[in-house]
Batch of 3 targets.
Target 1
Amino acid sequence: MIYLLDANTFIEAKNRHYRMHNFPRHHKDNFLGGADPWLIAMAKVSGAKVVTHEEPVPPDSHKIKLPNIATIFDVECLDIFDLLEFSECEFILKD
């Protein structure tokens, strides 16, 4: 499947999301009304990773979290510490 970052792809992702999960409608609407779906779409198109403080929730949860949805679209999520390690950042204390 080819993903293009445009309104059609967002609608496709939205429809796929609604079909795949048994989340309460108001949770779906809240998630899809924010920036998270666009972050996931952009990461998918560009091969990027998403950095977030959110933790995945169990499959039986009614909460919708970015890491769970990113996994569905094969988008890797990192936390800030993973990002620092991945970037090979070094912090040097100078006097």
Note: DSSP finds five helices and two strands in the chain.
Target 2
Amino acid sequence: MTTGIASKRARRFLSQNGKCFHCNKPMWERRIENMKSASVRLGINLGTHGWNKKMRDLRCTAEHLVPLAQGGSSRFENIVAAHLSCNSERGIRPVEDYKSELQSRSQPTGGG
């Protein structure tokens, strides 16, 4: 049985407890909740400036661990759920490299 990418994305969203594979922050999945309820859960006021970009960036996407461009497949084992912004920013870099980069960004810098 072939399962579509949207279904795989939603399954991964649930198995990851609604958190992005890369940054481990909350995201929303349009097959599971509507934008209004997601915005409340994520603390985004739909009436404020820039709300649509914030919601778009936090939307769940199907991320291919091994990118299709590098011979990866759309099999369930190669799919994780990630923010649109994390998925786009990672591009075709190795997952480990991107996660290390995110981790180093979140580390406080030395100084004084």
Note: The chain has one domain: 5-105.
Target 3
Amino acid sequence: MVKEFLSKAAKVEKRIAVHLSVLSSLVIIALLVGTLVYHQLEGWAWLDSLYFSVITLTTIGYGDLYPTSPVSKLFTIFYVLVGIGIIFAFIRVLIGRRKSASLY
């Protein structure tokens, strides 16, 4: 019974670790893509582009930077819809990992 429980717990932990690594990679890719696109389309400095990407995907949105061209605005719509889903999934897996760790 104990072996069965530990085996099941190990499988759950491994699955969470795989999800976490995939989502971590997707978060990094999303931030890199956003940084590159805003740097190219808006002509912002690299740091400003990264800053805007982080602020946008975390839904903070201070309003100090904003897209000005129609192409940038269309990209931002797509970027927000996809990126926020990635960020929320990442947070969900982190919370799930914390909950599963507290069960042991």
Note: The chain has one domain: 21-102.
